[in-house]
Design a protein that fits this description.
By secondary structure, this protein is α+β, with helices and mostly antiparallel strands. The protein has two domains: 98 residues, Nucleotide cyclase, GGDEF domain (Alpha-Beta Plaits, 2-Layer Sandwich); 43 residues, no CATH class. It is built from five helices and six strands, in the order αβββαβαββαα. It starts with a helix and ends with a helix. Keywords: ATP-binding, Nucleotide-binding.
Length: 171
């Protein structure tokens, strides 16, 4: 989505004939989100802490129409996006240099979970993986094929489960 924003915003022209620009900062990690009592109208929930502050600082120093990411974001998404190394920068409010990369473009992948992505742990699917593992053990033992049906509502991670099955029980 950030790449789409960076591609689209510069196409917008102001009434003066100027082109708009955008700078995006992305940081990954734990965030504390809370309601602010007595906050101005329209602002009731705010993100606090290291990560939102870092994202703000990255956005502030990003080149026009650029997306700057922190090391955590880079490590998690390096298999999905091409990056340019910006190097270490000292940012206000942070004790040492922060390693920064600039997101350039997505890396074409045949399958959305493929690539050298550092995936989040698969949660709540242990029994499903074990069931497929049992079928796979039987196939290997007697050479006869088996069928497993994986079905459910959209968005419950069926594709991710299949990806993990392929990783857990190769060829």
């Amino acid at each position: 989505m950030a790449l789409d924003i960076v591609a689209t915003v510069p196409q917008i022209e102001t009434p003066d004939g100027l082109r708009l620009g955008v700078r995006i900062g992305v940081a990954s990690g734990l965030v504390v989100v809370g309601d602010i009592e007595g906050a101005p109208a329209g602002i009731s929930t705010v993100a606090f802490g290291y990560v939102p502050n870092l994202a703000h600082r990255l956005q502030a120093i990003a080149v026009p129409n650029g997306i700057y990411v922190d090391e955590n974001t880079y490590q998690t998404t390096a298999g999905a996006f091409e990056y340019a190394d910006v190097g270490g920068k000292t940012l206000k409010g942070f004790s040492g240099p922060i390693h920064i990369c600039r997101a350039l473009k997505p890396i074409a992948r045949q399958y959305r979970f493929a690539g050298e992505l550092q995936s989040t742990p698969l949660v709540g699917r242990k029994s499903e993986l074990q069931a497929v593992g049992t079928l796979w053990d039987a196939v290997r033992a007697d050479g006869n094929g088996r069928i497993a049906l994986i079905s459910g509502e959209a968005g419950i991670s069926k594709s991710r489960l299949l990806y993990e099955v392929g990783r857990s029980f190769p060829g």
